[in-house]
């Protein structure tokens, strides 16, 4: 192809450049090039000599591998903000936060120990099953799941009653001024001191609201109905001696039977109640009122009110 007219076509010629002229500026003269090459070779040789020998990777046994799987599953299922000291009642599911009163602390520890022992048994069975499944070549590994909590119904009711008594009823009782401790050994002598008052009631010379109520129930529902299980339980709770509770009622029954049964308590005086019913439904609550009067230094009406409202405290 001919060059265009009016233009001068010049052939490009590669010029030889003397790099030595720039050696002072860039440091790329012949001597440096040789030195750099030598240094590079030296570094490679040195790095080869210092190369680390890595230990061979240890192959895990089937038992170790199974253990890792179990740990991974369990770690994945852990709750990040899990509070180990917080306890949830297994009966009412109320969350209990420490510190606990001494009695509740003992009860919680007892329940926790049972649950831990049960979980350990469950985990042991799980690990044995996983090891067997892995040996059989199973791909899917089922995560560990607790089957129940290892507690009996009695255990659940026990801890529930304990925390209600220790965290709710006892503080409320202290606010109301109820006695925190009762000397049941002295109860018999205190009841004997009421003998004359009780004889006046037995002889019909003084009216008892408890005797009137017992007779009213029999007249309303009949003697047979009044003595069925449900009605007897209602009467039992209605005549409990307040915060003296069932233990106090038993002590009172024992002392009152020694004082009056087969002596002053005749069928005629007790009618329509039987003598033992009269002691339980009339004399026991009458003793309860008098004991509370002494404890709280209040009048009879106020003592009856306290006895009624403190029954819940006694049931726990």
UniProtKB/TrEMBL annotation:
The keyword Nucleus applies. Residues 31-44 have a biased composition (Low complexity). Residues 30-65 are annotated as: Disordered. SMART domains: RTC4. GO terms for cellular component: cytoplasm; nucleus. May be involved in a process influencing telomere capping. Belongs to the RTC4 family. This is Restriction of telomere capping protein 4.
């Amino acid at each position: 192809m001919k060059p265009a007219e009016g233009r001068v076509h010049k052939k490009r010629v590669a010029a030889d450049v003397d790099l030595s002229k720039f050696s002072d500026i860039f440091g790329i003269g012949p001597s440096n090039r040789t030195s750099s090459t030598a240094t590079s070779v030296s570094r490679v040789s040195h790095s080869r000599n210092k190369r680390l020998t890595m230990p061979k990777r240890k192959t895990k046994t089937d038992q170790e591998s199974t253990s890792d799987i179990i740990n991974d599953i369990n770690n994945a299922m852990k709750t990040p903000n899990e509070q180990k000291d917080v306890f949830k009642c297994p009966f009412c599911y109320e969350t209990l936060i420490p510190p606990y009163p001494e009695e509740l602390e003992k009860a919680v520890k007892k329940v926790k120990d049972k649950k831990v022992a049960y979980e350990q048994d469950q985990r042991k069975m799980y690990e044995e099953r996983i090891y067997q499944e892995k040996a059989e070549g199973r791909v899917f590994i089922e995560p560990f799941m607790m089957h129940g909590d290892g507690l009996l119904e009695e255990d659940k009711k026990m801890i529930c009653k304990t925390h209600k008594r220790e965290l709710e009823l006892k503080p409320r009782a202290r606010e109301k001024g109820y006695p925190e401790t009762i000397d049941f050994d002295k109860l018999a002598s205190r009841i004997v001191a009421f003998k004359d008052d009780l004889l006046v009631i037995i002889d019909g010379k003084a009216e008892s609201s408890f005797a009137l109520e017992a007779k009213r129930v029999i007249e309303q529902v009949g003697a047979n109905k009044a003595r069925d299980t449900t009605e007897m339980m209602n009467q039992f709770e209605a005549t409990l001696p307040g915060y003296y509770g069932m233990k106090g009622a038993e002590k009172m029954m024992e002392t009152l039977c020694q004082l009056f049964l087969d002596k002053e308590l005749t069928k005629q005086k007790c009618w329509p109640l039987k003598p033992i019913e009269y002691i339980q439904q009339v004399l026991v609550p009458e003793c309860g009122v008098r004991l509370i009067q002494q404890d709280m230094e209040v009048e009879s009406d106020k003592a009856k009110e306290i006895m009624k409202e403190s029954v819940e405290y006694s049931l726990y």
